[in-house]
Q: What sequence folds into this?
């Protein structure tokens, strides 16, 4: 019952955040993170050079990551962007897991088609139920871009 309440609160705040901002990208993330290996991946713009990068992952339980990419910049004049961020990571399983995750990545936005492909590294420091550090958390993102990111 405790996990259902937590999942409901996470879903509620996620929906509230998506109503306040326009979803810029939606897709899928592959990689090993928190015992899961696939996620629904979304990006919400919160300014010209910052955004929220959120995932709901499936596999060994349900995981929710909501990372604020406080640095989001183009690489020169190319269509590549790099980003750095941090935020909470939750795994709803037995045992429950709460962690702080960092993120650094690069992505390519195709000019002619609205597809963004990216790769990232997310070192994660688990705080609750056990205390661990995971440095082997890599992912590949493929997302559909809605409109232009301003």
A:
């Amino acid at each position: 019952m405790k996990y259902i309440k937590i999942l409901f609160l996470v879903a509620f705040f996620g929906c509230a955040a998506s109503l306040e901002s326009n979803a810029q990208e939606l897709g899928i993330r592959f990689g090993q993170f928190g015992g899961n290996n696939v996620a629904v991946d979304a990006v919400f713009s919160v300014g010209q050079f910052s955004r929220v990068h959120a995932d709901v992952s499936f596999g060994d339980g349900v995981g929710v990551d909501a990372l604020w990419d406080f640095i989001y910049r183009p690489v020169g004049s190319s269509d590549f962007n790099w980003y750095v961020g941090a935020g909470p990571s939750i795994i709803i399983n037995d045992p429950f897991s709460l962690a702080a995750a960092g993120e650094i990545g690069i992505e390519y936005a195709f000019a002619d088609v609205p597809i963004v492909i990216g790769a990232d590294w997310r070192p994660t420091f688990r705080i609750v139920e056990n205390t661990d550090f995971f440095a082997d958390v890599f992912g590949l993102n493929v997302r559909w871009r809605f409109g232009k990111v301003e």
